[in-house]
């Protein structure tokens, strides 16, 4: 269905194996208890899948949307929760890859299975229009301060990196936004609820 090359098929087959051995057996417990599927995400990292779309030059597999969709298909059939976490990770990695001169360390870490990313876009008041955030960065003397309350963040409290959207200080319209990478241990980041 996805018309894979032999290398792409090898990656998809590897994802299927991880999904069958780890994701599937944990899925019912994860959903019933409402817990983060740490074992499943760790298994994806161990199989190199957190680096699926990371550029080859930074240690990843350098794959594109076709392979990512095929891998997501395999994961979602065994554990929809883990597949959603993985999808948000891939979206975060796409943001990192747009500015590799600033994020190379984190891209390399993801390729090694040691960095989980996610998006922090949704805000109350934006009516789920993530492209029009309500929050706005503050810039003063070369420093940027973010003050945003995100209403829904997949992997909140678990991800290592959060791609946080906010209105740009120099915005001329409601859709003029900026994305910042905020790391889990940076000052001021707080998860209000699971």
Structure in words:
There is one protein chain. With 194 residues, the protein is an alpha+beta fold. It folds into 2 domains: 6-99, Butyryl-Coa Dehydrogenase, subunit A, domain 1 (Orthogonal Bundle), CATH 1.10.540; 118-183, Butyryl-CoA Dehydrogenase, subunit A, domain 2 (Beta Barrel), CATH 2.40.110.10. The chain is built from 5 helices and 7 strands. It has helices spanning 6-33, 38-46, 65-78, 80-97, 100-111, and strands spanning 117-120, 122-123, 138-140, 143-145, 150-152, 161-167, 177-183. It has a 3-stranded mixed beta sheet with strand order 1-6-7. A hairpin with a 2-residue loop joins strand 3 (138-140) and strand 4 (143-145). Helix 1 (6-33) runs parallel beside helix 3 and helix 3 (65-78) packs antiparallel against helix 4. The longest helix has 28 residues, at 6-33. It is globular, with a radius of gyration of 17 Å. The chain starts with 5 loop residues before the first helix and ends in an 11-residue tail after the last strand.
């Amino acid at each position: 269905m996805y018309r894979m090359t032999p290398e792409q098929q090898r990656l998809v087959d590897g994802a299927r194996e991880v999904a069958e051995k780890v994701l599937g057996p944990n899925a019912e417990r994860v959903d019933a208890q409402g817990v983060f599927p740490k074992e499943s995400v760790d298994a994806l990292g161990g199989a190199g899948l957190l680096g699926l779309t990371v550029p080859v030059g930074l240690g990843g597999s350098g794959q594109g949307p076709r392979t990512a969709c095929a891998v997501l298909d395999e994961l979602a059939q065994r554990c929809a929760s883990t597949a959603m976490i993985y999808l948000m990770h891939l979206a975060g990695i796409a943001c990192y890859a747009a500015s590799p001169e600033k994020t190379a360390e984190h891209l390399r870490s993801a390729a090694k299975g040691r960095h989980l990313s996610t998006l922090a876009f949704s805000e109350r008041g934006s009516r789920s229009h993530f492209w029009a955030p309500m929050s706005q960065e503050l810039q003063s003397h070369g420093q940027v301060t973010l003050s945003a309350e995100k209403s829904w963040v997949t992997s909140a409290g678990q991800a290592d990196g959060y791609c946080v959207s906010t209105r740009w200080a120099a915005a001329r319209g409601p859709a003029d936004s900026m994305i910042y990478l905020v790391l889990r241990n940076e000052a001021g980041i707080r998860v209000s609820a699971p």
